[in-house]
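Holo prediction. Input below; ligand is ISE.
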Amino acid sequence: MTTRTAPASLGVAVVGTGKMGADHVRRLHEVTSGARVAAVVDVDEERARRAADAVGCPSYTDPVAALDDPGVDAAVIASPGPAHEAILLEALARDLPVLCEKPLTPDAESALRVVRAEERLGRRRIQVGFMRRFDGEYLRLKELLSGEELGRPLLMHCRHRNASVHDYFTTDMLITDSVVHEMDCTRWLLGQEISAVTVLRPAPSRQAPGELGDPQLVLFETEGGALVDVEIFVTCGFGYQVQAEAVCERGTARIGEGHGVLTTTAGRWGGAVDPDFITRFGDAYDLQMQRWVDAALRGESIGPSAWDGYAAAAVCEAGLRAQASGERTPVDLVPRPALYD
Ligand code: ISE
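Structure of the complex:
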């Protein structure tokens, strides 16, 4: 196993050049300081070359070859979830800092293998791309819930709406691709593990394509006795909305109301709804990347860890069972290793 010292400027291999990967290449090239895109990887050779040419770096179809490029000090993983484990293990074997888009891996068993590999390395190298933890409103909510003013959080009401989804989006993905963010936010905001999940399904919207069971209502119970409900509606049609209201002993706090510019004209008043997560969480993605680069340059790791990725995967598994059975389903979690305390 290699042990590395941090470089002066971080050479980043971006693995995967789909929607998120391409946006991260742009971000690293144009927005982030202290880093440069040192390699671009995609199984589609032509797509990799196009993305690499735009920033003037080598392109690869094999992630392992990219990690061995002498200019590469770190990796951003934005390839499909099933490809993550192999790349994460290779990165850990080279002691490389990684920012990995969610999911860490598609299931709890493989996520735990990644956690164990990081434990063997003896230090945290992986940050998971739960970008909401870098959003200004979420950060303010976290600060409020960690303070004394509002008292203990009792309930949280969340709404997560997407205008539309791709044809390949399945009913499972409402849980694993979308509600996974509320799983992470619940654990982070309340500082508690989720102990059980229940999923209720109304008659689907007639706007939902094919067999997609959209919307759904998901209920989390936490180990400290709080209840969190999540409306997930991925074909709402009107835009992208992510809202949360924490109900505490002495008050409430709401975020995601989207009070931007309000216009009044032609007998109406109103504002704009974000089209998608790239715009709604644009600043959060930028801050997440900058903080990851800064930490990597200091030889440190911050933010959501491999343990958080594993815990989210375990809650997703319970969520999928709950979705299929309609029953309250306990979450099965191994004890948290000391590395993540
Ligand atoms: C997407 O993959 C994301 O991560 C977005 O944040 C989420 O809102 C969306 O529902 C997912 O499909």
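Residues 171-190 form the longest helix (20 residues). That is the main takeaway for now.
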